[in-house]
Amino acid sequence: MNPIDIIEAEKVFAVLRMQDADKVKNIINALYTGGIRVIEIVIETPETVKVIENITKLENRPMIMAGGIITQRQAQIAIDSGADVVVSPVFQMNLVRLCKSQKIPLIMTATTPNEAYSAWMARTQLIKISPANPMGGAEYIEDILRPMKFLNVIAAGSIKPDDIISYLSAGAKAVGIGRAFYKDADLSEITKRAKIACEKVKNFISKV
Q: Among 6, 42, 37, 36, which Cα is nearest to 21's?
């Protein structure tokens, strides 16, 4: 499977935004133990890049998406670190050209229907709708897709595990969970939350 197919098959991914490299690694291990196979790491420091380098060298590992990428230089650093996918919080044609030349998938973020359509016109395979929850939640995803069913979107932004099924039912190909996975939780609790999320997805798939 290519990375985009893996994201759509897994249907849930984690989003980690923090500067403590050791904490990131520990949380990744806890999430992976709980069944999460796709993780977006927002690059904020050189230490975060090293985490991606270390994780992507492992034989048994989650697929890593490098998030927070705005410039071509950031994208190249992410690609060189071994990231499987580049995720940008903006629509940026320079990133489209770079990732195409490097043959690595690019996910661009959109907030409005117009931005989502522009990303689709640029042949973005997956469009990340964020922040989804503040914009109206699963209903907002439905509103975007109603006139543009051809869009392939994933949802992220203040989403809780309990909301996964509503987003998938609304048409999102996958759902990103951030702090709800690890806020106020030790590693065993993070693994427990991951298992619950994966079980929800498994039950959803079985009913489709």
A: 42
Alpha helix (H) residue ranges in 39-186:
46-56, 72-80, 93-102, 113-121, 132-135, 138-145, 164-170, 179-182
Helix spans in 57-92 (H): 72-80
> Residue 131: CB partners within 8 Å, gap ≥ 6?
111, 156, 157, 158
What does the pLDDT look like over 174-194, one tens digit per residue?
Answer: 999 999 999 999 999 999 999
Q: Which two tokens stand for residue 28?
A: 């990744």
CA angle 86, 121, 43 (to 5 degrees): 15
* Alpha carbons 164 and 184: distance in angstroms, whole number: 20
CA distance linking residue 149 with residue 133, whole number of Å: 20
Q: How far apart are CA 153 and CA 161, in angstroms?
A: 18
pTM above 0.85, yes or no: yes
CB 109 within 8 A of CB 126: no
